[in-house]
């Protein structure tokens, strides 16, 4: 199973460390050719405007959008969630615009810049240590979007079909369960792998 990590800016090596602990072949995605044969794609945290600018520069925006429409599983963490979102609060331009949610950038930041909290996640038996850094919040979700986790009644993890969006950074912990969950998701889509 080949799992790509969009490797333009942000927490790329941290996602790589997580994938190296699982039974998959990680691929650093910098150009369109790196998308060939992928069974899943992770969009890391970092700075969403920078990642988006580099995606345009490297001509990755449209090819990734196309693959999402074809059903390639994707997981966006923090800035990655913003990149996936269909609507961004008080911002007219969106990036991939494929995940049916409205996100608000730096929404927790106004209260607490960064923090770690144990959260309950649908599909995980034990609580997960979620690391939030200038994190976006999911303000609104479409009908087909499932909420996986909340913090103080605010949505911080969602799933819509093959797409997972997280406000926090599972790659900044030593807990590999979210990556495992994503890989299982990729495996169930690519049943012959
Ligand atoms: N840690 C993060 O990925 C922060 C995301 C950042 N606030 C953004 O808007 O892109």
From TrEMBL:
The active site is at 78 (nucleophile), 169 (charge relay system), 171 (charge relay system). GO terms for biological process: L-glutamine catabolic process; pyridoxal phosphate biosynthetic process; pyridoxine metabolic process. It comes from the Bacteria. It catalyses: aldehydo-D-ribose 5-phosphate + D-glyceraldehyde 3-phosphate + L-glutamine = pyridoxal 5'-phosphate + L-glutamate + phosphate + 3 H2O + H(+); L-glutamine + H2O = L-glutamate + NH4(+). Pfam families: SNO. It comes from Seinonella peptonophila. This is Pyridoxal 5'-phosphate synthase subunit PdxT. NCBIfam families: PLP_synth_Pdx2 (TIGR03800). Belongs to the glutaminase PdxT/SNO family. The gene is pdxT. In the presence of PdxS, forms a dodecamer of heterodimers. Only shows activity in the heterodimer. Its EC number is 4.3.3.6, 3.5.1.2. GO terms for cellular component: cytosol; glutaminase complex. L-glutamine binds at residues 46-48, 105, 133-134. Pathway: Cofactor biosynthesis; pyridoxal 5'-phosphate biosynthesis. PANTHER family: PYRIDOXAL 5'-PHOSPHATE SYNTHASE SUBUNIT SNO, PYRIDOXAL 5'-PHOSPHATE SYNTHASE SUBUNIT SNO1-RELATED. Keywords: Glutamine amidotransferase, Hydrolase, Lyase, Pyridoxal phosphate. InterPro entries: Class_I_gatase-like (IPR029062), PdxT/SNO (IPR002161), PdxT/SNO_CS (IPR021196). Catalyzes the hydrolysis of glutamine to glutamate and ammonia as part of the biosynthesis of pyridoxal 5'-phosphate. The resulting ammonia molecule is channeled to the active site of PdxS. One of its GO terms (molecular function) is pyridoxal 5'-phosphate synthase (glutamine hydrolysing) activity.
